[in-house]
Specification:
There is one protein chain. The chain is mainly alpha-helical. The protein has a single domain, classed as Winged helix-like DNA-binding domain superfamily/Winged helix DNA-binding domain (Arc Repressor Mutant, subunit A), CATH 1.10.10. Helices cover 66% and strands 10% of the residues. Strands 1-2 form a two-stranded antiparallel sheet. Strand 1 and strand 2 form a beta hairpin. The radius of gyration is 18 Å and the shape is globular. The two termini are 24 Å apart. GO terms for molecular function: DNA-binding transcription factor activity.
Length: 146
């Protein structure tokens, strides 16, 4: 017979989901106010930029960002249409593609970072001491699937 869910576990879950949504919505609003693309674009551009000149495969982006396949494909198409990434056939695998960042992609990601960083500063750093932030990060790390 399954164990009953305790109130503490339920409280942790509802607060994580609620607060995560609130913080992401604030960052999205701040980016929009500045005329910048959505946060999901930043995350993908960062992964592509980190991959370096050799690029990255779409499935690697999907795995790193925990995106659904259809969402990854649509997002990469929008980024390519905006001129922020390019895609090319993968030489090692005729079916796959390699995604690389363009100079415009680097520029827009760099423009987005101060807005993102300011939100992190305001909504996390200014509300938690350094020790509290480290404790929270460690606790949340325990919830990461292995």
């Amino acid at each position: 017979m399954p164990k009953r869910l305790n109130k503490s576990a339920e409280l942790v879950w509802t607060r994580m989901v609620s607060i995560s949504g609130i913080l992401v919505d604030r960052i999205e609003a701040n980016l929009k106010d500045e005329g910048l693309p959505p946060l999901s674009w930043y995350d993908v551009l960062l992964e592509v930029e980190r991959a370096g000149p050799g690029g990255i495969r779409p499935f690697e982006i999907k795995e790193r960002l925990l995106l659904p396949q259809y969402g990854t494909s649509r997002l990469l198409k929008r980024l390519a249409d905006a001129g922020y990434v390019t895609t090319a056939d993968c030489v090692a695998d005729g079916r796959g593609q390699i995604v690389t960042i363009t100079p415009a992609g680097r520029d827009i990601r760099a423009q987005m970072w101060p807005v993102y960083a300011n939100a992190l500063r305001t909504d996390v750093q200014e509300k938690l001491t350094g020790e509290e932030a480290e404790q929270l990060a460690a606790l949340l790390g325990k919830l990461r699937p292995t």
